[in-house]
Amino acid sequence: MVDDLGATDQWPNYTTRARELGFEAVIGVPLNVHRTTIGVLNVYRDTPRAWSHQDIESCEILAAMAAGYVLYASALQDQTELSGQLQQALQSRAVIEQAKGVLMAREQIDDAAAFAWLRNASMNANRRLHDIAREVVDGAASGG
């Protein structure tokens, strides 16, 4: 908490830049989530003046709200990424299952042998299993 940026010699680069932008006082309130600080809410004033108890309480309320929004946004982003990864895994799995079916019909082998064929082809070519499976499926679709 700094009541007058012009009267402090702490953080000279910061205070100089803040004052160039028209700020004369600042308070930084941590954004806490489950006893972990995830950021800081800085509130600025354009005039030097002491921060009152009410000012501090108001900033703490805003910081708590901001921390909740950051936490929610982070959880939403994690959920969206996980959903995308699961969707990709399901699509990949579908292609692998299709390729196994093609191999089972073409080579007259069982499910385990078809998967072993795909896995070996993947390892020998040093390529992803999904990519090998896609080629098997595309080859069957084109009559190859």
The portion of residues assigned to helices is: 55-70%
Shape: rod-shaped
Count of β-strands = 2
Q: Can you summarize the main beta sheet? A: 2 strands, antiparallel
Oligomer class: single chain
Helix count, DSSP H or I runs of 4 or more residues: 4
> Looking across the biggest beta sheet, what order are the strands in?
1-2
Q: Report the uncertain regions.
A: none
Calculate the terminal CA-CA distance, rounded to whole Å: 73 Å
- H/E series: HEEHHH
- The average pLDDT value, as a whole number, equals 94
Structural class from helices and strands? alpha+beta
Q: What fraction strand?
A: 5-15%
Radius of gyration: 30 Å
Describe the model:
The longest helix is centred in the middle third of the chain and has 55 residues, at 53-107. This protein has 4 helices and 2 strands, in the order H-E-E-H-H-H. The protein is rod-shaped. 64% of the residues lie in helices and 13% in strands. Strand 1 and strand 2 (36-45) form a beta hairpin. It is of the alpha+beta class and 144 residues long.
In short:
Helix content is 64%, strand content 13%. It has four helices and two strands; from the N terminus they run αββααα.
What attributes characterize this protein structure?
144 residues, two-stranded antiparallel sheet, 4 helices
What is the strand and helix layout of this fold?
Layout: H1 12-20, E1 25-33, E2 36-45, H2 53-107, H3 111-125, H4 129-141
Antiparallel strand pairs: 1-2
Helix pairs in contact: 2-3, 2-4, 3-4
